[in-house]
Hints:
Chain A is α/β, with parallel strands linked by helices. Chain A folds into three domains: 8-51, 434 Repressor (Amino-terminal Domain); 65-165 and 302-330, Response regulator (Rossmann fold, 3-Layer(aba) Sandwich), CATH 3.40.50; 167-300, Response regulator (Rossmann fold). Helices cover 41% and strands 17% of the residues of chain A. Chain A has 13 helices and twelve strands. The first copy, chain A, has a six-stranded parallel sheet with strand order 2-1-3-4-5-11, sandwiched between helices. Chain A has a six-stranded mixed sheet with strand order 7-6-8-9-10-12, with helices on both faces. In chain A, helix 6 packs across helix 13 (302-317). The longest helix of chain A has 16 residues, at 196-211. The A-B interface holds A 2-3, 5, 50-55, 57-58, 63-65, 75-76, 78-80, 83, 87, 90, 94, 97, 99-103, 117-118, 120-123, 143-144, 260, 286-287, 290-292 and B 2-3, 5, 50-55, 57-58, 63-65, 75-76, 78-80, 83, 87, 90, 94, 97, 99-103, 117-118, 120-123, 143-144, 260, 286-287, 289-292. The structure holds a DNA duplex.
Amino acid sequence: MKNKKTTIKEVAKKAGVSISTVSLVVNNLPYVSAEVREKVTNAIKELNFYPRRNARGLASKTSGNIGFILTENHFSQAEPFYTKIFLGTEFEARKHRYYVLLTTVAPTRTENEEIPRFLLEENVDGVIIAGKIHQSWIEEVQNRNLPLVLIDFEVSRQGVSSVLIDNAEGIHKAVDYLTKSGHREIGFIGGDIKHPSIKSRFTAYKQTLSEKGIEVRQDLISIDQTDTAIENGFVAAKKVMEISGKKPTAIIAANDAMAIGAIRFLKSSGYMVPKDVSVIGFDNVDAAEHVSPKLTTVHVPKEEMGAIAVKRLVEKIQKIDNVTMKTFVGVDLVLRDSTKVLSSKEVIPVK
Amino acid sequence: MKNKKTTIKEVAKKAGVSISTVSLVVNNLPYVSAEVREKVTNAIKELNFYPRRNARGLASKTSGNIGFILTENHFSQAEPFYTKIFLGTEFEARKHRYYVLLTTVAPTRTENEEIPRFLLEENVDGVIIAGKIHQSWIEEVQNRNLPLVLIDFEVSRQGVSSVLIDNAEGIHKAVDYLTKSGHREIGFIGGDIKHPSIKSRFTAYKQTLSEKGIEVRQDLISIDQTDTAIENGFVAAKKVMEISGKKPTAIIAANDAMAIGAIRFLKSSGYMVPKDVSVIGFDNVDAAEHVSPKLTTVHVPKEEMGAIAVKRLVEKIQKIDNVTMKTFVGVDLVLRDSTKVLSSKEVIPVK
DNA sequence: CTAATTTATCGAAACGTTTCGATAATATTG
DNA sequence: CAATATTATCGAAACGTTTCGATAAATTAG
Lengths: 351, 351
């Protein structure tokens, strides 16, 4: 069925009403009699009418778009954590009749950094920022009075909502599982420790061990890598195995990439995973199922995070709910092959 | 620096010229004196002016957007082959000052299937379709007189360009490598054989073997899976190992997912990869580096495919080159750990 | 019954650009 | 020198909707 590019004028003519009346019907607005509404609806169908996005946008000062911003390094990262989140936003946005425009910005900010064009052109009605980002980008959005939702990042700033991972719960579940499986020498490796998620995973690791009366041993910890890439997991695991006295029987990594790197180090150094050392990751990216052994990991519902962010943003755009919100998405421990039960009885420290 | 939402009117006033003259300067069009051009440019900078996308769109009957369509199953597939292509389009589109709008459609087509909203709203200037798609979606785009580029798919239809994988070259390189490594019993597993890429990979497999004087054995082939998912690789490899007389020393899979499935079957059945059977995949998705052993595979430059598609489409949109083009992207064999050299001397069949 | 309120329909301005034709000045060609 | 072509600048219509206020009819309340 060919689209004949009809306009609202032709619909009005065919239905015998004014353009204004047609607009009321198209937008499902009141003060149109049932009889007229039916006539207009029929004309719309017969003429296969669909309003143009541009014209609606100009007249109503809206764009129908949501901006999605992330940093360049997150954009190109091998493990598609943020692309899953993006796909989640796209699917949910569609339900609300929004398009999602994707862009990247530099991780740091200099004077002449290019501002996303969709901000300059006023081509988005709200913005989602995924991951850690320089504060000046947040200011750039807020200065334009655009609704903003952050994903996996938070700032103490008025009017910014966040969709966050319940990192503490995830790490708690991981430590809990390990201690219930008989592990006491549990290490932690991480990178980019200033990232709020990594920081809170590390805090939760120490806190949960303390709650269980297990000593937090510094020689089982390595968290000074610049980022959470695979190769930094390799290096961090290497350091832990080198400096630790009594070796860990389990290592919790700040994310799956570092867990994979840790497994690579361990295997290449003659340790067997999980026979000698269990490894747990965080995120549950696709690779977790492909590495050998398959990675036990804390599953983060990435597409759901994207969907929730869209819901929050659309509410802000439509001014349904102006409350600043922090939404924590629950996590689950997915048991695969990289963890081993040492003993079925939880070890209770003797003192 | 706060954006004060200035309009072209204010720029005109400040520069002491007309709106039309400002528009000529903004769009870098001729018939403006150098003196006036400088005055206007200064005013634009001082007022931090940026034209609205909506207004420009309405006036020029353009959207500034490119539509990106793929099927729902491709959208949600675990291995992010098409998301890599999408990311490639986004990066390239940005250079040409286009936004990319992503959507999915059903793999098949029924009467009341929803047409992508960006087509209905005339909100794209051209469309990229990635992967195999029902012909009616192609018609839906062409009926709207929109420029169209297909990725990893082709149809014998007027005016449709394609960015394709040089499947034959990839398979040729894989077979060549294997035969040069001493393999003669080389199997092939595939699914969704009607997909042009898969079909041409299979054809190339047979053809290259024949060129080398190696018999194409039907008992080393399994290609009747419905799609190229991991579990179908498992099943196809199982079938090949069950029905074949002299067992294969190598299996070429139609894609990485099936290669991974094949490795899983082989390992779970007591075979060692590559000691007993070498495995080669196609695509080089992220998982190829994570499976054990790491997968030898034909690398497809996915982001480049996306970038090329955007370039072709932008040319079509701007009517720079209306020629229908097929662009084949080169591929490379990436040697990892899943292939073994049987003998360093290429086996030349004795007859 | 009358006044007040709600419902129904419409005309036209507005949204912010692009672009075409009008007008005039300048440059080139025969 | 005159005719023709090019360059420069501008006014206003157009693009296709939304939406506000005008006008009138219908309904409700006192």
